[in-house]
Amino acid sequence: MSGYCDSAPGHPVHAPYHDLEYGFPVDDDRQLFERLVLEINQAGLSWLTILNKREGFRRAYHDFDIARVAAYGEADVARLLSDPGIVRNRLKVAAAVHNAGVALDLVARHGSLAAWLDAEAARCGVDKAAWVRLFRRTFRFTGGEIVGEFLMSTGYLPGAHRPDCPVHARILACDPAWRRALPAPIP
């Protein structure tokens, strides 16, 4: 996504996401769940479309309250499928509801979704293929691109910004999980 560092600055929608969110470590479970849902919904669409619909997603999915989304029934699914403020795709909506249930279970077992991701980061490190296998076993609608973007956007995989992008230095100062997972240089 190094091209993002060229195209996002100055853009009214992309710039705030690029400068303040993309690649920074996230430890808030609602924000992690939001990013997962947004990345799933981006499949086949532009990121600009998703960012433009972000507030609609927040409203429709009750500010990404994981427990509330996990409890959605058929009436909620019907409501989501008729909401023009989000992506109205039955598979993506079903994945969001299912994945909320999975996330709720992970929170119950690990204390938080972030704690589960941190534990897995110690195991998977920066091996994208290992992460993709894990996500495919754990969640629905999580192919390689979705998983990669989710993990880059939340600080678990490197590559969100070019090393010469000013945002990259700010991310390094936050000690993202991917940096801690890199092997120590040999003296």
UniProtKB/TrEMBL annotation:
Gene3D superfamilies: Hypothetical protein, domain 2. PANTHER family: DNA-3-METHYLADENINE GLYCOSYLASE 1 (PTHR30037), DNA-3-METHYLADENINE GLYCOSYLASE I (PTHR30037:SF4). SUPFAM superfamilies: DNA-glycosylase (SSF48150). InterPro entries: Adenine_glyco, DNA-3mA_glycosylase, DNA_glycosylase. This is DNA-3-methyladenine glycosylase I. Pfam families: Adenine_glyco.
